[in-house]
């Protein structure tokens, strides 16, 4: 039986409670279907009592028109509450997975773009650099210009707060100095080789860098190579030898300059492990490369003036019958790409493992060799192409077997 509770005021008459129906089939809950099917209620009180189930009401006489305002209500049990909570939780987890997949896709695309820029900057550097060195055979001056442009870019990057300016102590500079020296020599020898032989041959010789890395690491770091690493060096050395024998542009100056570049570049890698540089929060790979670039500029500039003199002025270039504007533009593009590809290389190294970076470097060398052959129309014999392919395959194999660690001997 339903009941209605009211507060009695002098101005209102107490409504009569509804008499319960004699039919046992009547439900205490309000059923709109049943109400619509029944006859009309006898009075307003019956209709009011039928339409307000399970509630208590109070009549307010504060205004001329009284109002019905709910006082209490009986909460209904929601059988779908657990299902709704599960649906909300599942939706949140799906959103998180969607965010993670989107972030992973973005990182993959970003890494792919960096690899593409790395290859593209390398191609442009080698092409424009070779064009400059063919008409301006002063590799020390050319290398100094490249370091000068890199220094300006580094100073702009620090000055405009595009990258945090480091605070370097004197002890750190002393530890970085050997790295700057071998870095300067490595790039200088590379330009000397590019000025003497074809770009494809220089990079074929530079593919033998793993050989020098294994030798220097064993001598100075005590890292004994695994049999797999030693086996991977055989096709590298054999392929470089086969390509050198059949190279049309071969000369000893270009050959030994490229070999010296391999030696100095791998010495830089060994020194970076051997020399204990105090690592701080502001000394990452990009900062280290930036400091080395500035130091290389100050190291090489006086040497270039002493060895080759001041040869890059417009008057000297015009007297030599060169197109000054064209030479300046090509030199600037080569220097810009020189700094850009090394900067991107360090950015990639911060995102991937050294093995993945080595594989990318091998692919980069293949792309540079093929693009230079096509651009400069370098004559390549079948045996020369075979030697280059074998050497590059050995480099790829070396980058893969470097992950195999030798098992320590049990006592």
Characterization of the model:
This protein is mostly helical and 411 residues long. The chain contains 14 helices and 2 strands. It has a two-stranded antiparallel sheet.
Strand order of the largest sheet: 1-2
Q: How many distinct beta strands?
A: 2
Spans of at least 5 consecutive residues whose pLDDT stays below 50 are: 1-12, 21-44, 47-77, 407-411
Rg, Cα atoms, Å: 41 Å
User: In whole angstroms, how far apart are the ends?
Assistant: 92 Å
Major β-sheet profile: 2 strands, antiparallel
Strand content: under 5%
Silhouette: globular
What is the count of helical runs?
14
Oligomeric form of this entry? Answer: single chain
The helical percent reads 55-70%
Provide mean pLDDT, rounded: 78
What are the secondary-structure elements, in order, as H or E?
A: HHEEHHHHHHHHHHHH
Structural class: mainly alpha
The domain tally reads 2
Protein name: Triose phosphate/phosphate translocator
Transmembrane segments: 111-128, 135-158, 170-190, 286-307, 383-401
GO molecular function: organophosphate ester transmembrane transporter activity; phosphoglycerate transmembrane transporter activity
Main location: plastid
List keywords for this structure.
411 residues, mainly alpha, 2 domains, two-stranded antiparallel sheet, 68% helix, globular, disordered C terminus
């Amino acid at each position: 039986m339903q009941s209605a509770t009211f507060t009695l005021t002098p101005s209102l008459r107490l409504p009569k409670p509804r008499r319960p129906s004699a039919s046992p089939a009547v439900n205490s809950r309000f059923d709109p279907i049943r109400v619509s099917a029944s006859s009309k209620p006898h009075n307003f009180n019956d209709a009011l009592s039928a339409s307000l189930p399970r509630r208590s009401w109070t009549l307010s006489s504060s205004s001329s028109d009284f109002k019905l305002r709910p006082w209490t209500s009986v909460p209904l049990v929601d059988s779908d509450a657990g299902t709704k909570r599960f649906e909300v939780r599942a939706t949140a987890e799906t959103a998180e997975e969607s965010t993670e997949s989107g972030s992973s896709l973005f990182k993959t695309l970003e890494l792919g773009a960096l690899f593409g820029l790395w290859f593209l900057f390398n191609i442009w550097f080698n092409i424009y650099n070779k064009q400059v060195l063919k008409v301006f055979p002063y590799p020390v001056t050319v290398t100094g210009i490249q370091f000068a442009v890199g220094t300006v870019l580094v100073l702009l990057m620090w000055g405009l707060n595009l990258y945090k300016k480091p605070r370097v102590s004197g002890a750190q500079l002393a530890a970085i100095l050997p790295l700057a020296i071998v870095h300067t020599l490595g790039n200088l020898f590379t330009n000397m080789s590019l000025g003497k032989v074809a770009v494809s041959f220089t990079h074929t010789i530079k593919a033998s860098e793993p050989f020098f890395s294994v030798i220097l690491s064993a001598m100075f770091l005590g890292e004994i190579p695994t049999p797999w690493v030693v086996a991977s060096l055989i096709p590298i050395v054999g392929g470089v030898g086969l390509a050198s024998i059949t190279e049309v542009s071969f000369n000893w100056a270009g050959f030994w300059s490229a070999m010296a570049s391999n030696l100095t570049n791998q010495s830089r890698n060994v020194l970076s492990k051997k020399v204990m540089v105090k690592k701080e929060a502001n000394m990452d790979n990009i900062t280290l490369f930036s400091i080395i670039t500035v130091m290389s500029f100050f190291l090489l500039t006086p040497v270039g003036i002493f060895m080759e003199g001041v040869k890059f002025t417009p008057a000297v270039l015009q007297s030599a019958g060169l197109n000054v504007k064209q030479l300046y533009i090509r030199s600037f593009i080569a220097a810009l790409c020189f700094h850009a590809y090394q900067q991107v290389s360090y950015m990639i190294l911060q995102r991937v493992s050294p093995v993945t970076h080595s594989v990318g470097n091998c692919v980069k060398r293949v792309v540079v060799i093929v693009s230079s052959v096509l651009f400069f129309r370098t004559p390549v014999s079948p045996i020369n192409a075979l030697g280059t392919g074998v050497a590059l395959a050995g480099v790829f194999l070396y980058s893969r077997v470097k992950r195999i660690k030798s098992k320590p001997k049990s006592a």
